[in-house]
Amino acid sequence: MKKTTIDTQKIIETGLTITINNPFSEYLACTEFLSTSTAKKYKRSPLHKLLMEDKDTDAKSIGRMYHSYILEPLTFEQEYFIIDDRKKVDELINDHNYKAPRSTNLYKEWYAEQLDKNAGKIPISNEELSMFQDMKKELYRNPFIKYLIEKSEKEISAYGIVDGVLCKGRYDMLMLSKRWISDLKTVLDASDKGFQRYLTQFDGHLQPALYTQLAEQYLNDGMPWTFFWIAQEKFKPYAAAIYKASPQIINVGAHEMGLLIAQHKYCEETGDYRGYEVFVDNKFGIREISLPAYAIKDYQFFNNNEQ
């Protein structure tokens, strides 16, 4: 296990800690803490949680760039560099008559040179930068979204104990004075129904439940917290909307999170990570299966009868 600067024993003895200057890499390295993204894997089965690896994708990479550009512009400048290839592409088309300039060796050599000049940084295209600029402009059309982004502390790590289990959360935005937690999401559809589908598909109700619980532990003053989602569509016109987690979402999320935490605790203590049989109440894992209602058809045949 990768060593971090998080004092696990101190958390066990004293309760929650919120760390402002905690790099995301260190947050990920604290694997002894349960996060909502890890907890939801138990919903497939404990075996899947044990063996399922988090794979990086282009969508996740773009999401990280977007978060960094919107929430941490200084970090964005330090970690990324703009690779503007428009002049090189025009040169290859006009001087060499290449139909697909980016697939040529000349372009690949030029691209490798740019990477060498900016060693340690992640390349981002001019088109991607333009997209992020347009997305930020659309976000800032809403004065409350702009206020949250500009006035909140960004990328805050929280570590605590819930039901005897070490848990963690990474807040996109946190405003302690107002007890506001905000999370920035890129989605396909930011409308009411579209975002409801997103929350349902990705178990979005778990996050506000755990995050508000950790925050309540931190201040420990009995006052409620509010959780906001800022949802922005990934495609033009990059429409955005802001939603507040209802008491129903918090309560349902807290109930499910409690079950997942209990399952995690059992698996960690016993080493018993079972597959789908964990959802069956007999020792052999046998369950009866039937056709779903939509698969049952009432067929009617009208054949020609000979007279």
Give the strand tally: 8
Succession of helices and strands: HEHHHHHEHHEHHEEEHHEEH
Radius of gyration: 25 Å
Q: CATH class of the largest domain, anyone?
A: Alpha Beta
Which class do the helix and strand fractions yield?
Answer: alpha/beta
* Number of domains as seen in the coordinates: 2
Percentage of β-strand residues: 15-25%
Q: Which stretches of 5+ consecutive residues score pLDDT under 50?
A: none
Describe the structure.
It is a single chain. The protein is of the alpha/beta class. The chain folds into two domains: 8-60 and 140-269, Lambda Exonuclease, Chain A; 72-137, no CATH class. Helix content is 45%, strand content 17%. It has helices spanning 8-14, 24-29, 36-39, 46-51, 58-71, 73-79, 86-96, 105-117, 126-139, 143-151, 192-201, 206-219, 247-270; strands at residues 17-19, 80-83, 122-125, 153-162, 165-175, 180-187, 226-233, 240-244. It has a six-stranded mixed sheet, with helices on both faces. A hairpin with a 4-residue loop joins strand 5 (165-175) and strand 6 (180-187). The radius of gyration is 25 Å and the shape is globular. The model has no long low-confidence stretch (mean pLDDT 90).
Layout: helices, strands, pairs:
Elements: H1 8-14, E1 17-19, H2 24-29, H3 36-39, H4 46-51, H5 58-71, H6 73-79, E2 80-83, H7 86-96, H8 105-117, E3 122-125, H9 126-139, H10 143-151, E4 153-162, E5 165-175, E6 180-187, H11 192-201, H12 206-219, E7 226-233, E8 240-244, H13 247-270
Parallel strand pairs: 2-3, 6-7
Antiparallel strand pairs: 1-4, 4-5, 5-6, 7-8
Q: What is shown here, in short?
A:
The protein is α/β, with parallel strands linked by helices. It folds into two domains: 183 residues, Lambda Exonuclease, Chain A (Alpha-Beta Complex), CATH 3.90.320.10; 66 residues, no CATH class. The protein is built from 13 helices and eight strands.
